[in-house]
TrEMBL record:
It is an enzyme of class 2 (transferase). HAMAP family: MurA. InterPro entries: Enolpyruvate_Tfrase_dom, Enolpyruvate_Tfrase_sf, MurA_subfamily, RNA3'P_cycl/enolpyr_Trfase_a/b, UDP_GlcNAc_COvinyl_MurA. UDP-N-acetyl-alpha-D-glucosamine binds at R93, R122, P123, I124, D125, Q126, D305, I327. Keywords: Cell cycle, Cell division, Cell shape, Cell wall biogenesis/degradation, Cytoplasm, Peptidoglycan synthesis, Pyruvate, Transferase. The modification 2-(S-cysteinyl)pyruvic acid O-phosphothioketal is found at C117. This is UDP-N-acetylglucosamine 1-carboxyvinyltransferase. Residues 7-406 form the Enolpyruvate transferase domain. It catalyses: phosphoenolpyruvate + UDP-N-acetyl-alpha-D-glucosamine = UDP-N-acetyl-3-O-(1-carboxyvinyl)-alpha-D-glucosamine + phosphate. Its main location: cytoplasm. Cell wall formation. Adds enolpyruvyl to UDP-N-acetylglucosamine. Its EC number is 2.5.1.7. PANTHER family: UDP-N-ACETYLGLUCOSAMINE 1-CARBOXYVINYLTRANSFERASE (PTHR43783), UDP-N-ACETYLGLUCOSAMINE 1-CARBOXYVINYLTRANSFERASE 2 (PTHR43783:SF2).
Amino acid sequence: MEQYVIKGGVRLQGEVSIGGAKNAALGILAAAIMTDETVTIENVPNVRDIRVLLQAIEGIGAKVTYVYNNSVQINSGSISDINVDYEYIKKIRASYYLLGALLGKYKESQVALPGGCNIGSRPIDQHIKGFKALGAEVDISYGKIHTKAEKLVGSHIYFDVVTVGATINLMLASCMAEGDTILENAAKEPHIVDVANFLNAMGANIKGAGTDVIRIKGVSRLHGTTYSIIPDQIEAGTFMFAAAATKGDITVRDVIPKHLESLSAKLLEIGCQVIEGDDSVRVIGSEELKSTNVKTLPYPGFPTDMQPQMAVVLALANGSSMVTESIFENRFKYVDELNRMGSKIKVEGNTAYIEGVSGFTGAQLAAPDLRAGAALVLAALAAEGISEIEDIEYIQRGYEDFEGKLRSLGALIERVDSERDVQKFKLKIG
Ligand SMILES: CC(=O)N[C@H]1[C@@H](OP(=O)(O)OP(=O)(O)OC[C@H]2O[C@@H](n3ccc(=O)[nH]c3=O)[C@H](O)[C@@H]2O)O[C@H](CO)[C@@H](O)[C@@H]1O
Ligand SMILES: C=C(OP(=O)(O)O)C(=O)O
C-alpha cells in the first residue's frame, strides 16, 4: 500500500497553484448528465473521487472524454440506464448527486447509499424529504436508494439543517420540474453558487444561490455549455495552514480570496501575516503562534473541512485553544495520532481542548479520513524527524498531486509503496 514518508522541519516557501474545487466538481459533473448535448467542463481536479464519479457516469452509458489537462467533455445522449451500479460509487459521498440528476432528467434513479469520509452518521433525510416534496416516491432497500415520479412538480422545501448535499441535490432534481421550487434554509457555500451558475449556463433558471433562499423556475430542457470550476477553497486553505505550521511563506495562486476569508481571519488572529492579491493569498507564518478558539459553521463560517488542519496549527501555538466541531460528530479521529507526535489535545464531546507545545516529533501514522490525513501531513512537515503516513488513499480523494505541490515548496516528502522505497528516501535525504 502506498504511504507518505516525510522529513519535517523545513519552512515551506514559494507559490502553489490551486486546482478546481472537488466539492463543486462533483455537483457539476452530475449536473452535466442532465442534457443530451455536449458539455465541456474545465478546471476539473484530477482526484480519486472525481475519477470514480466519471467512471460511474460512463458506466450508465454517457461518453466521457478527457480533452486536455483537467478538462472533461461529457455527452449524455447515450445514457441507457438509471441504475448506477458501479462498485466504487458507494464509497463516495457525491454518488447521491446522480440520484437528483437522474431523477430530474429521467424521473427515475437508483444509486447505492452514499459513503464518503467516516466523520459521523451523515443521514440523507433532507434529500429524501425534498425528492418526496417534488412528487417522487423514494424507496431504500438492499443498500440502494430508488426514486421514481410520474412527474416532478415544484415545491416549497424548508431544510431542517443547513445541508450542502441536499441543497445541491434539490437544485438538480427541481430545475426541470413543472413550476417553481423554493429552497429555504439553503446552504451558501461557494460550491452551491458554482453548481447553480453551471446549471444556469445550461439553461436552468435558478436565483438566490449564495443566500439562504434559492428560487428555481423549472425549464423544459437544458443544453450544452462550456464552464470552468471555481478554485478549491479547502486545498487553498490547507496550503495556507501549511505556511503557519512550518513557519513558512506560501502564496496560493488562482484562488478567490473572498472564499478564504474565514481562514485568513483565523491566521491573522494567531499572528500570521496574510496578504491578499486579486487571485492570490500569501501567508507568512509567525515564529510565535498565538492561541485562539474556533467553531466550525456553515459558510461563511469556519469550514469543518479545515478543522483538523486548524487544530494542528493551534497545537503548535502558545497557550490553550479550543476547537469546537458543530457539523459532524466524529471529526477528531486524528487527535490520537497527533498526540503520538507530542501534541497535547483532549477531546470532550464536540470540543478539542488544546495545550500548545513547542514542537512535534515524527511518528508512524495512519490517515483516518481525507482532511484528517491532510492535517497529519502538515503535522509531519512541522515535526522534527521522519514520519510515515499510511492509508493515503483517503488524502488522494481530495488533493491532486499533494506531494508534488508540497515538494515544489521545499518539503521533503515522497509517495512510496514499499519498505525499500522508504529506505531509499531516508538515504537520499540523509
Ligand atoms: C461531497 C461534499 O461536498 N462533501 C461536503 C459536504 O458534505 P455533505 O453534503 O454530506 O454535508 P451536509 O452539508 O449535507 O451536512 C451538514 C450537516 O447536516 C446533516 N444532514 C445532512 C443531510 C441530511 O439529509 N440530513 C442531515 O442531518 C449532516 O449530518 C451534517 O451534520 O458538506 C460538508 C459540510 O460543509 C463538507 O464537510 C463535505 O466535504
Ligand atoms: C468530508 C469530505 O468529503 P466527503 O463529503 O466526500 O466525504 C471533504 O471533502 O472533506
